[in-house]
Each structure stands twice: as structure tokens, then as C-alpha cells.
Design goal:
Number of strands: 7
Largest sheet: 5 strands, mixed
Strand content: under 5%
Radius of gyration: 28 Å
Mean pLDDT: 90
CATH class of one domain: Alpha Beta
Shape: globular
Structural class: mainly alpha
Strand order of the largest sheet: 4-3-5-7-6
CATH topology of one domain: Rossmann fold
Helix content: 55-70%
Low-confidence stretches: 9-34, 443-455
């Protein structure tokens, strides 16, 4: 088990371009007076200063997380095997392909090894580029090989510095999005500060560096910034085309770097669909965004050798259905309120039915079952029947896939982020409901809206999109903790935008009959500045203490295991064990695996369930037969799994296996009526007794406080 121990140290313009401004002095014919040349110069100066602040904050954030990583592990001082062990679970698996490409005799040989890989899954040859999103590792390894930096920078540092550098891109994208929405870079500054001070809930890059989301989320943030700019009014055609190109590139890179891209973009497509139905976004731009999503995903599909999971994604089916339904229902946005509501309901039902039909048809044609575990998990999670499915329960029992803990909100409230977010969300939601009602009512039913004109603001398309985005991703985060990082980072953007927004403060002041232009501007700038001063005063000392705290990586048992494997087993040896540990075995030793943590394949899921019978109540003959069917030479048993106490009864791995096998679980507690006692004791416990029925098949060759390695006999 890995621990982090204390290190022993010996003493010795705020307004962006194209943003319409209500404060401009305009002639009756619409031309800006010539004395506004000074205003243009001020805008240029403001944009320059804001840009410098954005880049500076991005770079500082990158240095900050890199320093935390170094201080936490003493990464520069530990051995290479310890560095590699620090890339836990699937992180180690992904990094192993970067290492494999670096160590290959040539780039061509490295690529051939990935396309025809027979070491990731024993007795099978798989295409890594088709199965996994590892093009970033391929690109980075090629870049490292061709750049003249080998003498100055180790491969591992080139890798982690790239990821930390992407954090700079992430923060700059959040900053720019907030700036675009509010018209002031003060909003971007506040968003970046909130992102850093809420680091525990906004990112985990410093301790899960190679995780796919750490590659993907910066590009997702860039895409959101580009969409925000695209949805602005009065955008010139040339700039619109360049912005569409930026959206496409960001969408493509996001899709290429994360296997869950299709689900995130499906939520994004739902946001666009809802807003388009209520006539809150320009239909032409929404259509372009649907097409960009489909084309970006299809391009990734081609690069991943026509990965069937992408072709069978709900996103492609949904977007295609929306475009087809629009063609069928041409006069969707005309008529009275009741007439439009009726058309809208029919439109939603038509899109839903078409999506299900198209998706089912594609999956039937492709015989696609790679993502069925996700739908089983969702079905069980939201209470549509209990399940004994091993894969679904494996997800359900993990804290990361549970509901968002309540203590998250207390942490977010400490920085005032959550309070401001809820305040802005409430106001913007009220405004959105009013605007949606007005749009659906049409010109004949606007008297009610005219009565409320004093307190009503017009919700701009870019603000409407970000509102729906934060609502939908908030629902996702509340239901699944692992996805909170998609929400909390955007929460920083949305809250800072609201606090610096002219429209928000104008709405509030008009509703309480205190509005003047001067008062609104004083509040717009003073409250964000006061918030920034409060955050700095409260959290700066803590950040400094955090940066001065020195620890070091400490996991002697795993280091001993990896060193033993490298020294005492042949390079062709095949190892079985837990998914998490085997990823480290591949990275540190290069040995062949029976299974691994990349779970998006039906055959691998079934294989993993079979391998995990080493922790179930099965006979030694059964376990031996299963392991040998996958070519296993050595099996690694972990006490932390065999005698697990991290999860409660019913969620321990051995319990999941017992229920899936129809056996009664260990310990006090209820069991389902149809479960029966097993005829055999638990394999991982009984094998340690060295009984003849076990030693005939398994010989212990390594043991420490955490791991037990057994060599399988090769019977004729």
C-alpha cells in the first residue's frame, strides 16, 4: 500500500471585442462619435493587460500544481521504479505506452507494437490505438524523440510537464470564458482565483497525472470559450468562420483524448437542443455545432480504426435525429403559445424515438456490446431494479461513482464560490424562464412581459448557453462524484461572470428601484475586488504552507514486488491479478498481463471477472483451469483485497464475486434467499495453508507483507 510520509530534511478593457455596450455615446444615425478614439485605445490597453494577466495566471497555476506534485512525492529524488509506481491504476497503463514508444528502436516499430499488441491481454493480439485513447502518448513520444532535449530532460519529466502545461491552457480558457460573458477581465481573474483556491474540487491533476480527463478537460474548456464567443451577437462572418474552426479543433482534441467524450458532448448537445427549442439560440449556429460534434467524433472514429463504440454512441444518434426532426417539422417556431407547446412536445417525442431507433439499429448492425456495462450501471444506480451484475456492482460500490458528498459544498462555500454561484444561478434561471415564456408566447401575448420590463433583462445567447451547461453538468456531478470536475471548474466561470455582470446588477438594482449607471458600475467592480481581497487574505497563507510542506513517496512492498518480477521472471511471463496492480506490472516490468483497468470491452470485462475468481470461493482446480486458459504463469494475490475492510459488507470485491456466483457472503448480515453456501473455502485464504490440493497446482515464489506471488504448474 502506498503512503506519503514526512520528508526528512537536514537543517542547513475590460470589454472584449464585438461586445455591444450600452454605455457608448452614439449619434442618431448609429455612428460612434469621434471623441471615442480614446475609448478604443483604452479598450486595446485593457485587452492587452487582461491577456497578460490571463497568461500569467495560467503559468502560475501550472507551476503551482507541478510544485505540489514534487513536494508530495519528492519526485526528483526517488528511483525510476518508484516514479512509475506513483502512476496508479489506469494512469500507469496509459503511461506504459508512452514508455513503450520511447524505448522502441524506431517510431515505426513503436507504432507497430501498439497496433499489434500481444502483451496487454495474454493470448490475444489487440490494437491499442483502436481500443484506447492514447494518441496523446504517441504524439508526445514522437515529439520527445525528434526534439533535441534528451540530454537535458528525462522522458517522464517531458510527459508530466506537458500535463502541467495543459493546466495553464485550462485556466486561461476559463478566464477567457468568464471575460467574454461579463465584458471585464476582472471576472476572469476571479474565476482563476476560485479555480486555484478550490483546487481539491476543481482538479486532481497533481496526483493522477496521466488520467484521460487531465488531457481532455483543457480542450473542453477551450471549446466552451469558443462556443461562448461564437454565440455573441453581431459577430462578423470572417470571425464566425474562424471561431467555428476553433470549436471544431477543440472538439476533435477533446474527443481524441478521452473515452467518455461522447457522454459529455451528449449533455452539451442536450443543452443546445433545449435552448434551441425555446428559441434562445440562433438556429443556424446550433446546427453548425451539431455538425461539428458529429464530424469531430467521426474523425476520431477513423483514427481509432473505426472503433464501434464511437459509431454506436448516443451522441451521433441524437444529433442525427435532431437534424432529421427539424426537416420533418419545418414550422416549429411559429404560432400561438399553445400551438407552439404542442409542436414542441411532438418534436421532443420525435427526437427521442428517432434517437432510440437509430442507436438500436447501429448497435444491431455492428453487434455492439462494449458500452452495455454503462447502461447496466445507470439502470441500477437510478433504481430501475436491483442487479447482481458484477460489472455494474463494481461501479456502484466505488465512492467515485456515488452521489456528490455534502462536504463538497462546505468546502466550496469557504471561498464564497458556492454562495455566489447559487445567487447568480437563481437570477439567471428566473431570467431564462421569463425569456423562454416570452419567446413561446409570440407577439400577440407580450403584455405580461411588458409589465415586467422594468425588472427583466434580455438573456444573451452566450449567457443562456453557459446557464444550461452549468445546470446539466451540475446534475451530472450531483449524481456521480467523479464527474464533479466538469462542473466545479465551470462553476468558477459562471459565478465570477454573474458577480461582474452589468446585466445582473442592472436587474437587481432596477427591481429594488435603485438603478443608476454610476451605482451599477461601482457595485460591478467593488464587490468582485472585495471578494478577491477576502480570498487572498483567507487562503494565501494556506497556499504558502501547502507549498512549503515536504513529503516523499513510500511504498516499499510494491517496489520490492516489481524488482523481484524484473529479476526473477522471464520477459515472456504472463501475470494475473487485480486490474489496478497489473497496470503497474506492465509499466514497471514490461511483462504480459491477463487483464487491465481499461474496462470498455466486453471480452475484457468477462475475462476480469474470471481472473477475480482467485478471491472467490472456488476449488483450486477451477481457479487453475481458469488462469491457465489465459496463459497465466504467475498470479499475484493481495491481502488488501482478500481481507478487504475499505468497503462495507456487500461492496467488498469478495462479496460481489460471491453474489455473482450465487454464494452466501461472509460475515454477519442478511443474504438474499436464493444464495447458497459454497462447497469450497475462499481461494485466496486457503492457498496460504499449503494444502496438497493447492500445492500441486501453485507454488509460492514470493511473499511480503502485502503481496503473495504463486507460480502455476505446467501440467501436460
Amino acid at each position: 500500500m502506498t503512503t506519503i510520509r514526512q520528508r526528512r530534511v537536514e537543517k542547513g478593457t475590460e470589454a472584449a471585442e464585438d461586445q455591444p455596450s450600452e454605455e457608448k455615446n452614439v449619434k442618431p444615425d448609429g455612428k460612434i462619435l469621434s471623441d471615442h478614439t480614446g475609448g478604443k485605445l483604452w479598450n486595446i490597453l485593457s485587452v492587452t493587460v487582461g491577456g497578460i494577466v490571463a497568461i500569467s495566471l495560467g503559468l502560475l497555476t501550472s507551476v503551482y500544481v507541478a510544485t505540489l506534485h514534487e513536494n508530495d512525492l519528492w519526485f526528483s529524488n526517488i528511483k525510476e521504479v518508484e516514479r512509475e509506481i506513483s502512476f496508479r491504476t489506469e494512469c500507469g497503463l496509459y503511461y506504459s505506452y508512452y514508455k513503450q514508444m520511447i524505448q522502441a528502436a524506431s517510431i515505426q516499430q513503436g507504432l507497430h507494437g501498439l497496433v499489434y499488441d500481444n502483451k496487454t491481454e495474454s493470448v490475444r493480439t489487440i490494437n491499442i490505438l483502436e481500443r484506447m485513447n492514447v494518441y496523446q502518448e504517441v504524439f508526445l513520444s514522437i515529439l520527445y524523440r525528434i526534439l533535441p532535449i534528451q540530454q537535458y530532460l528525462e522522458p517522464v519529466y517531458f510527459y508530466i510537464y506537458t500535463l502541467f502545461g495543459l493546466q495553464a491552457v485550462y485556466v486561461i480558457a476559463l478566464y477567457v470564458t468568464s471575460w467574454l460573458l461579463s465584458g471585464t477581465w476582472l471576472s476572469g481573474l476571479l474565476a482563476a482565483c476560485w479555480y486555484v483556491t478550490n483546487r481539491i474540487d476543481t482538479t486532481r491533476v497533481e496526483f493522477t497525472i496521466p488520467l484521460r480527463e487531465n488531457w481532455a478537460l483543457p480542450f473542453f474548456a477551450v471549446q466552451i470559450a469558443a462556443i461562448t464567443y461564437l454565440l455573441r451577437t453581431h459577430l462578423q462572418p470572417v470571425r464566425e468562420r474562424w471561431t467555428l474552426m476553433a470549436v471544431f479543433i477543440a472538439t476533435f482534441l477533446f474527443s481524441l483524448t478521452w473515452q467518455f467524450n461522447q457522454f459529455m458532448m451528449l449533455i452539451q448537445a442536450l443543452a443546445l437542443f433545449i435552448l434551441d427549442c425555446f428559441d434562445m439560440l440562433p438556429t443556424a449556429k446550433v446546427t453548425w455545432l451539431y455538425i461539428i460534434q458529429i464530424s469531430g467524433l467521426l474523425l476520431v472514429c477513423v483514427l481509432q480504426f473505426f472503433n464501434s463504440m464511437i459509431l454506436g454512441s448516443l451522441l451521433i444518434s441524437f444529433n442525427a435525429s435532431v437534424l432529421i426532426a427539424r426537416t420533418i417539422q419545418k414550422n416549429l417556431k411559429k404560432g400561438s403559445l399553445l400551438n407552439r407547446l404542442g409542436k414542441l412536445i411532438l418534436h421532443v417525442l420525435l427526437v427521442l424515438c428517432l434517437t432510440l431507433l437509430i442507436n438500436k439499429f447501429i448497435k444491431k448492425i455492428l453487434n455492439l456490446e462494449s458500452d452495455e456495462h454503462i447502461f447496466k450501471f445507470l439502470k441500477a444506480k437510478f433504481g430501475f431494479g436491483a442487479t447482481r451484475d458484477f460489472d455494474a456492482n463494481l461501479y456502484l460500490c466505488e465512492e467515485a461513482f456515488g452521489l456528490l458528498p455534502l462536504n463538497t459544498f462546505s468546502r466550496l462555500s469557504d471561498t464564497l464560490l458556492f454562495y455566489v454561484y447559487v445567487f447568480v444561478l437563481f437570477l439567471m434561471t428566473v431570467a431564462a424562464v421569463i425569456v423562454a415564456f416570452r419567446n413561446l408566447s409570440g407577439s400577440n401575448q407580450v403584455q405580461f412581459m411588458e409589465k415586467m420590463e422594468e425588472c427583466t433583462i434580455t438573456l444573451k445567447p452566450d449567457a443562456a448557453y453557459n446557464l444550461m451547461h452549468t445546470v446539466l453538468f451540475g446534475c451530472l456531478a450531483l449524481s456521480t462524484m467523479r464527474m464533479k470536475y466538469l462542473w466545479t471548474s465551470h462553476m468558477c466561470v459562471f459565478a465570477s461572470f454573474g458577480l461582474c455582470s452589468t446585466e445582473v446588477w442592472k436587474l437587481i438594482l432596477k427591481c429594488i428601484h435603485l438603478y443608476t449607471s454610476q451605482r451599477m458600475h461601482v457595485i460591478k467592480y467593488s464587490i468582485p475586488i472585495i471578494t478577491l481581497l477576502y480570498i487572498s487574505y483567507k487562503f494565501w497563507p494556506g497556499i504558502m504552507d501547502e507549498l512549503s510542506e515536504l513529503r516523499e513517496f513510500y511504498d516499499p512492498d510494491t517496489v520490492e514486488l516489481m524488482n523481484w518480477i524484473k529479476s526473477n521472471t522471464p520477459n515472456t511471463a504472463v501475470f494475473a491479478g487485480s486490474m489496478q496492480l497489473l497496470a503497474g506490472v506492465k509499466l514497471c516490468t514490461g511483462r504480459t498481463l491477463t487483464n487491465h483497468p481499461h474496462y470498455e470491452d466486453k471480452n475484457l470485462r468477462e475475462r476480469t471477472k474470471q481472473i477475480y475468481q482467485i478471491y472467490a470461493k472456488r476449488s483450486p482446480e477451477d481457479v487453475y483451469r481458469i488462469l491457465r486458459s489465459f496463459g497465466t504463469d504467475y498470479v499475484i494475490l493481495e491481502d488488501s483485497i482478500c481481507y478487504e475492510r475499505r468497503h462495507s459488507r456487500g461492496c467488498r470485491l469478495r462479496d460481489l464475486l460471491d453474489v455473482a456466483n450465487g454464494h452466501i457472503m461472509d460475515g454477519l448480515g442478511e443474504n438474499e434467499p436464493d444464495l447458497k453456501p459454497s462447497l469450497y473455502p475462499r481461494f485466496c485464504e486457503e492457498i496460504k495453508k499449503n494444502l496438497p490440493s493447492y500445492t500441486i497446482h501453485f507454488t509460492r515464489v514470493f511473499q511480503n507483507k502485502t503481496f503473495h506471488v504463486y507460480k502455476l504448474a505446467k501440467h501436460k
